[in-house]
Write a structure and sequence with these properties.
With about 210 residues, the chain is an alpha/beta fold. It has 7 helices and 9 strands. The protein has helices at about 25-35, 65-70, 90-100, 110-120, 135-145, 150-160, 175-190; strands at about 10-15, 40, 45, 60, 75-80, 85-90, 105, 125-130, 170-175. The structure holds adenosine-5'-diphosphate (ADP) and guanosine-5'-monophosphate.
Length: about 210
């Protein structure tokens, strides 16, 4: 059930993209803690788990063969190669959540965002930008879970990813974490309140549904 206590006529997806180290996982984690009505789209990937990551919670960690099997069975709404590994969004949970009238959160890259927005209109796209290059470098370093070479590869890819920010609907600077989470919550609240997403009959006010 939505926080308003009313169901939406149709749910919607909220995509959060950022360069690696931009704060997607941290921000999504905080959003899920604050808003229990949000669902999270657990992606599939062929990369290895980081020490703190759990299979099924952070990602479904798959072999390349298994990933390709699912790809051929058309189980992904979209998939892409990012930093040399496969990543894909499972279609079933995405469509089921929206049909249920709930909101699903996705932390995916710029290719995935563009594919999903083309296939599923109504998807909300937010780009998180770091306050500076220096802070992005420090945050990536601070994470210490990818090797040095992998970190450099991710930093090099960051320029191309940030160049795609202009195609998003919302741009949020991830400086102070609590402010970032507040701002994204405000976006989600405003999107939930859009008239077109609400079930006017559920208000019990006849004038709202007059033809
Ligand atoms: P992503 O999922 O986009 O790759 P993470 O969420 O793993 O990024 O964040 C990278 C690092 O930056 C983590 O160590 C995280 O704790 C830190 N971080 C994220 N957002 C902030 C913030 N607003 N202020 C300070 N550190 C942050
Ligand atoms: P990481 O390895 O740091 O978790 O993720 C690397 C990149 O892959 C990030 O930009 C992340 O958002 C993206 N990513 C994660 N899951 C998916 C997915 O299902 N599809 C796409 N296209 N990108 C994803």
């Amino acid at each position: 059930m939505e926080p308003s206590g009313r169901k939406l006529t149709q749910g919607f997806a909220v995509i959060i993209s950022a360069p690696s180290g931009g704060g997607k996982s941290t921000v999504c984690h905080k959003l899920m803690q604050r808003d229990h009505a949000l669902r999270y789209s657990v992606s599939c990937t062929t990369r290895l788990p980081r020490p703190a990551e759990k299979n099924g919670r952070d990602y479904h960690f798959l072999s390349v063969d298994e990933f390709k099997r699912r790809m051929h069975r058309n189980e992904f709404l979209e998939f892409a190669t990012v930093h040399g590994q496969y990543y894909g969004t499972p279609k079933h949970l995405f469509d089921q959540t929206i049909a249920d009238g709930s909101v699903i959160l996705l932390a995916i890259d710029v290719q995935g965002a563009s594919n999903i927005r083309a296939k599923r209109p109504g998807t909300v796209a937010i780009f998180l930008i770091p306050p500076s290059w220096a802070s992005l470098r420090n945050r990536l370093r601070g994470r210490r879970q990818d090797g040095k070479e992998e970190m450099e590869r991710r930093l090099a890819n960051a320029r191309g990813e940030i160049a795609q920010a202009k195609n998003y609907e919302y741009l949020v600077v991830n400086d102070n974490l609590d402010d970032t989470v507040d701002q994204i919550e405000a976006i989600i609240t405003a999107e939930r309140l859009k008239l077109a997403r609400q079930d006017l009959a559920s208000f019990g006010i006849p004038e709202l549904t007059l033809k």
